[in-house]
Amino acid sequence: MPDPGSHAYDVKRTRLRAQYDDEGTRHTNDGKADRAANAELERDYPPRTLGDPDRAAGPRGERGGSGAGGEALTLRSTAFVDQDLIPAESLELGPPLEWTDTTGATAEYALVCEDRDADDAVYWLAVGIPKQVTGITSALALPDGAIAGHADDGTVGWRAPQPPVGDSHRLVFRLLAVDRPLGLGKGVTPAQLQEAAEGHVIAHGTLVGVVTR
Fold it and tell me: Which stretches does the entry tag as region Disordered (predicted)?
């Protein structure tokens, strides 16, 4: 299912617009073909909210992943609001994050940061966050017991994002609440987190921040 605003969604809209023209409607100049294509897409692919479990399902955000938790956690930052620009000073250390968990069944947390505009590559992750913790002051100040893992490119720990000059990237922060200790140690990879969390994510939260140069 393509998300509104995605490349796949735009391609489908272009094809639908051409299809209406080919069927003899010839509405290009008055915009009716455009409106008809948009109406069909909105009917078949309604916009989804950030809390939709199908949008932020597994540890890597897979749609419909079996490790998804049905409940939503409230994930927020004192440095920026959802879908807004992350201040430069917060990017150096990693933005502060805090959350509210009402499940009552969390054993520990994991945090994952993905770059939505770089094929959802995992940019940073932390595992083993104790269940009593309700936030971090920065990605470089993890609580006792928590461990920073490997990103997809092999680096460990947070480093300031550097998108291409003139380009903006969306960083997706995901908080996963799991129902048992995952037993992941130093050097954990995104794939290992995904495997360990499969079937044990009872809730999750998502926060999106924008970085630009």
Answer: 1-71
